[in-house]
Amino acid sequence: MGRFPTVMTRRWTKWLGVTAIVLLMTACAGHGAHSRHGELPSWNDGPSRQAIVAFVQAVTDADSPDFVEPEERIAVFDNDGTLWSEQPLYFQVMFALDRVKAMAPAHPEWARRQPYKAAIAGDQATLAKSGQAGLMKIVGVTHTNMSVGDFTKSVTEWANEARHPRFNQRYVDMTYAPMRELLTYLRARDFKTYIVSGGEVEFMRAWAPAAYGIPPEQIIGTTFVTTFNDQKGTPVLWRQGKLEFNDDGPGKPVAIQRYIGRRPILAFGNSDGDLQMLQWTVAGEGRRFAGLVHHTDAQREWAYDRESKIGRLDKALDEATSKGWTVVDMQTEWNQVYSFEKTQ
Amino acid sequence: MGRFPTVMTRRWTKWLGVTAIVLLMTACAGHGAHSRHGELPSWNDGPSRQAIVAFVQAVTDADSPDFVEPEERIAVFDNDGTLWSEQPLYFQVMFALDRVKAMAPAHPEWARRQPYKAAIAGDQATLAKSGQAGLMKIVGVTHTNMSVGDFTKSVTEWANEARHPRFNQRYVDMTYAPMRELLTYLRARDFKTYIVSGGEVEFMRAWAPAAYGIPPEQIIGTTFVTTFNDQKGTPVLWRQGKLEFNDDGPGKPVAIQRYIGRRPILAFGNSDGDLQMLQWTVAGEGRRFAGLVHHTDAQREWAYDRESKIGRLDKALDEATSKGWTVVDMQTEWNQVYSFEKTQ
Q: Which positions in chain A touch B219 (Cβ < 8 Å)?
């Protein structure tokens, strides 16, 4: 049921009690899809939910002037901060730091060398001082100079085991329930849902298909140069220590064209890195949808926007306001953020 | 019915006549799918057709030890020489040469400058002398420094109009009927069919979806660096004059992983540029299919392999022989090459 205001009269409590019984009866009768929140139960009946439903009805109703053929119903979603959380650091960076610790026994020299020493010790201050160059070294040793198969294996192990320091939940369980419902809602109406993320593509493919129901061929991300090598007679794909394509900012519409070859009719992001993807989407002919997840809930998730180093939302927030894009107020519009809240 | 040997007895003619009547009756009764050649009518009942059918039955029968889940039924096809012809030059080069002529009135300086002058005059000898550098100049002016939308428009116009010098048919009508049937046959069994070609991706996307029933997002090719530009307030994707990725040879398995993220279970090519794609496909666990189209029919199409500059088939032919891959003898195994043969 989400959270209730702390000031609640008896009358409201009683009313909610009646609602709960009705909901329970409805669910038991197997009519879950027709419950209060329909197929988007974690979304309150606010402006964002209304805008989504109105858009989807308009483009899927064959009698609507805005009707879009099923094969053109392309929907693209950023991942970090849009489909799952991204604090205190992008979860891919958390993976890299965890991996340095896991790999440390095989690399005794790291005990005396930065930034590895700081990563192993969890020394955030020293790590921060090593800056972008230090981070690149850590990403390098944990992500490259290995086969695609071995990298995928290391991510899968981490995804099954590692837990977030604040919530003590697996990272893969820190996806947003309302956004997973939205993906399902769109697919039920013949949308093809894609991830278009600054995250590395094979990092996401290791866990995102199970988490979101999005197959590997619909996951687009940042890539490393990869080569076709012969390993004792067996062909392997080898991840080189060189960035190939940075799927962020203006890279996103470029990647959308390269991988999909069609312009999306719906795009969802949460930061300035998604601005060009949203611009490209709405610049197409016909009705389009641009959405931003606005992180406004410090209690259940995090609250940040214009001043944040991770997931800064500044220019895109201004453009959303001036263009009338949908900005989801996480605090008031989502009655549930993570699925694990249910059982807490 | 394809072509008949020139030496044909009366008895054969009579037998073929009876067959034709039976086929006609079957078709009229709406049982086309159960006709002599089933769903692959342009394939004679030879070793290639048998190998294809046996493979597809094995991986789609739920009781088979070789069963493959529908979402893993990835099939990849080279384009030039595998799905359509590639002589006397790759059709994309024919497009570029045609485009130089079409663009010439706006470029009077080309009348005095090579290799443009030779391209406009159709002077093959001088063009050949200009070599790879000359070809790159011609590809550059016809393919780059324009928006994706404008390039697509130029290809669409060409595809609708231009005709092949030998057959006087549109290039888009020079796709192979047996291969189009194979694509349909596979998709009817839940295979996802992809093009993985050295051709430029937007060149193919302009006509290949209609020709093969393959959507833009399943077409993988060579790419130019593309940037997200602002054109008087409207975002455009701009094709830069710089090669980004050459989707040929060892690039093919790399692109397959990057775009699809799964290993194919079936791959079809026709030249040494497809060798690594075939190797990567068959190196996967479980039953796999690797096929080569062998150009053996100088009369209906072209005959070439080890010595050809276009579509050289040498190392891959040796490997196919030693590994038992399927090599399609175009002359004996296809009773029809192009659909336009029917009406000639």
A: 261
pLDDT of A55-65, one tens digit each? 999 999 999 99
Identify whether residues B257 and B304 lie together within a single domain.
yes
Residue B119 lies in a domain: yes
Q: How many domains does chain A have?
A: 1
Amino acid at B278: L
pLDDT tens digits, one per residue of A312-326 = 999 999 999 999 999
DSSP A199: E
- Please indicate, yes or no, whether residues B258 and B300 belong to a single structural domain of this protein: yes
ipTM score: 0.88
Interchain CB contacts (distance < 8 Å): A and B: 76
Q: What is the mean pLDDT of residues B232-242?
A: 96
Tokens of A276: 């060009």
The pLDDT of B215-241, averaged and rounded, is 96
Among A148, A217, A254, select the one facing B260 at the smallest CB separation: A217
B201 closest CB neighbour out of A219, A258, A276:
A258
Which residues of chain A make contact with B217, given a CB cutoff of 8 A? 192, 259-262
Q: What b/e sequence results for B162-198 when a residue is b if at least 16 CB atoms lie within 10 Å of its CB, and e otherwise? A: bebeebeebbbebbbbbbbbbbebbeeeebbbbbbbb
> Which chain B residues touch A if contact means CB-CB below 8 Å?
71, 148, 192, 201-202, 205, 215-217, 219, 223, 226-228, 234-235, 237, 250-251, 253-254, 257-262, 276, 279-280, 283
Q: Which helix (H) or strand (E) holds A228?
A: strand A219-231
Judged on CB neighbours under 10 Å (0-12, 13-18, 19+), B53 is middle
